[in-house]
Specification:
CATH class: Alpha Beta
Helix content: 10-25%
Low-confidence stretches: none
Number of helices: 2
Largest sheet: 4 strands, antiparallel
Shape: elongated
Strand content: 35-45%
Strand order of the largest sheet: 1-2-6-3
Distance between the termini: 26 Å
Order of helices and strands: EHEHEEEE
Radius of gyration: 16 Å
CATH superfamily: RRM (RNA recognition motif) domain
Structural class: alpha+beta
Number of strands: 6
Mean pLDDT: 94
Number of domains: 1
Amino acid sequence: MNIIIKPVITEKMTAMGEKLNRYGFIVDKKANKLQIIAAIKDLYGVQVAAVNTMNYSGKLKTRYTKTGIISGKTKAVKKAIVTLAEGETIDFFSNI
C-alpha cells in the first residue's frame, strides 16, 4: 500500500515549513499515524515529532453550459500535517 500520495505545495504550507518545520502531505485514506510516520522516515530519512491528520470530504461542483447543468463531485482526501524534529528539513525541489 502506497501511504504517501503527494506533498502539498502551497504558499501556506511552504511558509509553515520554513517557520514551524511542518509539512503537508496527501495520504491514503486508510493510513493511520504510525504508518504515516514510517513512510516519511523511509521516503525522506527524517525524524518525525508529530502527525496531525484530517479528512476532507469531496465538494459538490456544478457548471452551467450550453447543453445544461453539469453536476459532479471532487474526490475526498486525507491530509497529514507532519511536524519534524528540531534541525530536520525536507527539500521537495532538490531533485528537479
